[in-house]
Design brief:
The chain is of the alpha+beta class and 268 residues long. The protein has a domain of 184 residues. Helices cover 48% and strands 26% of the residues. It has 4 helices and 9 strands. Strands 1-2-3-7-8-9 form a 6-stranded antiparallel sheet, with helices on one face. The longest helix is centred in the first third of the chain and has 55 residues. The chain is extended and about 100 Å long. It starts with a helix and ends with a helix.
C-alpha cells in the first residue's frame, strides 16, 4: 500500500470518528432540550426566588461545625452572603448557590504535638477554612508547638448540574454536613417540588441531607423490635451459659487443687 492510500485510510477513520462524535453530541443535546432543560429552568426559577427572599428577609442562621482539633467539638458560625451564580438563564447547565459562614467569636488552639499539628492542618484544609498558624520552636530549632487562630469564613455551595452524558441531574454539596463534596444523582422525573423544598431547607440548614426521611411501616418496626428483643435474650442466655461454664471450671480447678494438696500430704 502506498503512502497516499495510507493517508486516505487515516483520513477516512478520522472522518468516521468525527461523525460519530457529532452524532453523540447531537443526541446529548436533544436529550438536554427535551428532558433536562425544563428541569433546570424549574430549579433556576425556584433557587432564584429563594435567594431573593432569603436576602430580603435575612434570617439569622447559626450553625455549628466540628472545626476543633478533636474533630468533635463544634464551633459556632453565622451563615450569610447568599448568591446565585448561573451559566445561562435560557439554557442553564450549571446553577450554584454560594454562601459563607463567619465565626461568631475569636477561636484559638495551642497544639503541642507535631503529628497533631499536621493532622489539624490537613483537617482545616479539607474544609478550605482559612487560619493563621504561629509556630514555637525549641532550643534545637525543632517544632515544639503551634498556635492556630481560626479566621474563616467557611465557604459553602450547592451546585446543580445537567449531565447530558449520564442523562441525569447532579447535585453537589460543598462543606454542608461534611468536609469536601457530596454528590447526589437524580433522574429528571425525580426533581419535584418536594426535592426543591429540601434544597431550600438544606441551604438554610434546617435539614442535613437531600434524602427524604424513610417512613417505616408500623408492622416492620414491630418485627424489627421483636428481632432485637430475641437477639438480646439470646445474648443474655449466652452470658449465663458462659457464666455457669466458668463457675464449673472454677470448681473443678479448686477440686483438683485440693486433690493435689491431699496427695502431697500423704506423701509426707
Amino acid at each position: 500500500m502506498g503512502i497516499l492510500d495510507e493517508l486516505k485510510q487515516q483520513a477516512a477513520s478520522m472522518r468516521a470518528a468525527e461523525a460519530e462524535e457529532a452524532q453523540r453530541k447531537a443526541a446529548q443535546q436533544a436529550f438536554y432540550e427535551q428532558s433536562l432543560q425544563p428541569v433546570m429552568l424549574q430549579v433556576l426559577s425556584y433557587l432564584d426566588e429563594l435567594v431573593k427572599q432569603i436576602n430580603y428577609v435575612q434570617p439569622e442562621r447559626h450553625i455549628a461545625y466540628p472545626l476543633a482539633p478533636d474533630r468533635q467539638s463544634k464551633i459556632e458560625l453565622v451563615q450569610s452572603a447568599y448568591k446565585l451564580v448561573i451559566d445561562s438563564s435560557a439554557n442553564p447547565r450549571q446553577l450554584d448557590v454560594r454562601l459563607s459562614a463567619k465565626l461568631t467569636e475569636s477561636v484559638e488552639y495551642d497544639i503541642r504535638d507535631r503529628a497533631a499539628i499536621d493532622s489539624y492542618c490537613t483537617y482545616l484544609n479539607s474544609y478550605n477554612f482559612k487560619y493563621h498558624r504561629r509556630d514555637q520552636l525549641n532550643s534545637r530549632h525543632r517544632l515544639q508547638s503551634a498556635l492556630f487562630t481560626l479566621e474563616g469564613p467557611l465557604q459553602l455551595a450547592m451546585r446543580v448540574q445537567a449531565d447530558s452524558e449520564q442523562q441525569c441531574i447532579v447535585v453537589l454539596l460543598k462543606n454542608f454536613s461534611a468536609p469536601g463534596v457530596q454528590r447526589y444523582r437524580y433522574q429528571p422525573g425525580q426533581v419535584d417540588d418536594a426535592l426543591l423544598d429540601r434544597m431550600g431547607r438544606l441551604i438554610l440548614h434546617e435539614v442535613d441531607t437531600l434524602n427524604a426521611p424513610v417512613e417505616v411501616p408500623t408492622e416492620v418496626r414491630e418485627k424489627l423490635r421483636q428481632q432485637l428483643l430475641q437477639k438480646q435474650r439470646e445474648e443474655t442466655q449466652l452470658e449465663l451459659d458462659n457464666s455457669e461454664e466458668g463457675a464449673k471450671l472454677w470448681q473443678r480447678s479448686a477440686s483438683r487443687l485440693r486433690q493435689i494438696s491431699r496427695a502431697n500430704d500423704d506423701e509426707r
